[in-house]
Fold this sequence. Notes:
alpha+beta
Amino acid sequence: MEHEFTKRINDILVNNFGALWKEIFKESQIIQYLNIKTKSASRDSKSRGSFANLYAIYVLIEDYLEKGFGKKEGYGDYEGAIFTRLFRRQRELPFGAKLQNHALNHRMNEEFKKYFPTCEYIPILRDASNNRYWFNENLIGVEIKNKQYNLGQTIIDIINAYIETKKDAFDKFIQICENAHTLSEEKLILFIIGLINPNIDARIFEIVSYAILKYYYHNKNIYWGFELDTIQEENLKLYKTGRTNANDGGIDFVMKPLGRFFQVTETIDVKKYFLDIDKIEKFPITFVVKSTDSVPILKTKIEIQAKKQYSINAIVKKYMDCIEEIINISILLERFKEAIKLGFIKEILEEIIKQSKVEFNYEDDEEIED
């Protein structure tokens, strides 16, 4: 696979290994894997970055080099890096504050196996009994013409270059959003509509969906109370529970005082929907779906998959009843238009900028998970 960032990888290999760079690339499966995972580097900020698996590699190789194993032997006797330190370190890296432990525990290994099914080595080695981790040293080095070459620093260099490229793209995205203040209302509306199309990055879609729905519900009031003579009026408030894709139990937005849960998704995989429902004990959820399919079509697709997975109609019905509402792109656009009529176009833009800065680590407001 060759893409725009491949040239950057090649330049790093040339700088580190000179004329041997082509052979290094050919012989190293981990370098080839990095090439696959960095294909979004030179696209715009709306292209999803592949940070989770890359950072799992990064923190382990960084630990490997810090302990001096790039220049000495004995890694096989090393007690391993402790999980909490690795986890904290990956969350310190740019775009890493929301990352979970899945890549370190299994996802990176599973994906590597998918791309290199004949490789005899597992990249990340783990002792679950004491939460110690290693990176397979067989993949860090390559042998060319009976000489061993260690790729530890090269791996770090490539991932650092990817981080810088993606950070530059997000800096530009934030700047574009901030410059949108000067647009006419008509052009600003078109700009925001462009951020909720089916090809947009999932994080951008979630941020814009939140901004739109927050101000769509903003002026809607309900009357509630525990006794008839203490009924009070309160407007609906939508809260974002954390960063996109965070480990928050399957809840992206929460509405007060109704207690509605919202989950944003770009898939119609029934396993994903039902997993989210199971996480919160089958409490009803509204799904915001990055799809142009109509709501009846989306529901039908989900139900067809559900019936294939579960042969009992009562089980299927119980899950389907937990889908309180489906908001597709078409409905989201309608609610955007309603929010515009209410005079919230500028507020929606400000919310997009605010949440984007949080998402892209301009601000840090998320605690490390257990």
